[in-house]
Amino acid sequence: MFNFFKSKKAPERQLNHPSELRVGDMFTVIDSFAYPSWLKGQTLRVTDVQTYQYQHSADYELVLESDAGKVIFLQIERSDGEEWANFSIKIQRDEVDEIFTLDEFARIFDEEQLTFIEVKNTPERYMQFLGDSYQQTEAPFVCYFHNKDYRNQALPQYEQEGGEPCEMICLESSDESHGLNIEIWDGGETEVSLTLTRPITDIVDLFPGDTQ
Question: Per DSSP, what are the bridge partners of residue 26?
């Protein structure tokens, strides 16, 4: 008779792939020396999902937070039938100077040709996130940033109001395992990110959050 009083609980969401992660979900990064100590083996929580819209495509970026409050960004890349996890961290002006020197870094903006830049100093805390050198992969281009998850929705029209314009400059190491990305926003604010590219299989133990 007590079966009549059992509550009907919605089935728990199943996560089968990192591309299905939403705000509130969590996952674990494998315990590997390919990652710095503050990231390897850590469980990260998705706090936001953002969209970078290009003329004919879009990238979706997960904003992640560690137990210690460290913020990391993740984009999942698909190329030639393979999938990669692009983990990124933002660095400040003084760290740009420490790693490249500001004079050397300024060549990226000043030269008309695609720029090659070498790392002058590798701080231990960023060792795994840095290549030895970077080559600019294409001319600067404009995208539109949306602080919204458009993965399951139609994207706005390109250049439509609602997206924040951003000029992107992308460089990568010769083995394509490290990236250096520069975002220039209206008003001249500039953000610099270091990217570590790893196999998607480094993301394990997907945990759904409370959101159904």
Answer: 45, 207
Alpha carbon separation from 18 to 15, 134, 165, 207 (Å, rounded): 8, 28, 27, 10
- How many Å apart are CA 206 and CA 66, to the nearest integer? 15
Chain segment 41-75, per-residue pLDDT in tens: 999 999 999 999 998 889 999 999 999 999 999 99
pLDDT tens-digit readout, 130-179:
999 999 999 999 999 999 999 989 888 877 767 899 999 999 999 999 99
The full 3-state SS of 113-139, as one line of letters, equals CCCEEECCCCCHHHHHHCCCEEEECCC
Residues found in the chain: 212
Contact 108, 117 (CB under 8 A): yes
Contact status, residue 91 vs residue 99, Cβ threshold 8 Å: yes
pLDDT in tens, 11-42: 578 899 999 999 999 999 999 999 999 999 99
What separation in angstroms does the CA of 87 have from each of 23, 59, 189?
17, 13, 22
DSSP 115: P
Q: How many CB atoms lie within 10 A of CB 175?
A: 9
Instruction: Return the residue matching tokens 């030639």.
Output: 80
pTM for this structure? 0.91
